[in-house]
Amino acid sequence: MLATAKKLDDVAGLALPQTGVNLRAFVHQISNAGKQAKEFTVIINPRIIKKSSDIEKSYEGCFSVPGYKGLVPRHKTITVVYQDITGRLFTKEIRNPFLSRVFQHETGHLYKELYFQKMDPTDQLIPRKP
After folding, report:
1. pTM (two decimals)
2. What is the C-alpha separation between 94 and 97, in angstroms, rounded?
3. How far apart are alpha carbons 77 and 86 in whole angstroms?
4. Domain span at 75
5. Splitting the chain (130 residues) into consecutive groups of 10 residues, what average pLDDT does each group show?
6. Element containing residue 106 per DSSP (H, E)
7. Which entry of 39, 56, 93, 106 is annotated as an active-site residue?
8. Would you call 56 a catalytic residue per the annotation?
9. Whose CA is closest to 100, among 119, 73, 75?
């Protein structure tokens, strides 16, 4: 998963099922400030246990749907439970809207969910600019 993620351009996260391995894990490279970090963070067995009522729509793309992006509503703040690579358990409130979006997007893959399934039916996928 890490090797695949490092080969991809402009990747915020990648779920293990996207690499053909059906395990509940993903990586992301977003710092708390919402900027890409230098290292990937491994998230194992994530669960979203609380979602804010504040929703924000923003464009998302995906390794599983190459060449397109869509306008997806996501909760701005979420509370999550997960393990790190050492097995240590964490409970965190994610207030950064971009990191919250990435966490929701990648966790969705673990439930066989793609971002376009969350889109308003009146919105359309649009081509990503090269």
Report:
1. 0.88
2. 8
3. 26
4. 2-127
5. 60 89 89 64 96 97 93 98 96 95 97 96 89
6. helix 97-109
7. 106
8. no
9. 75
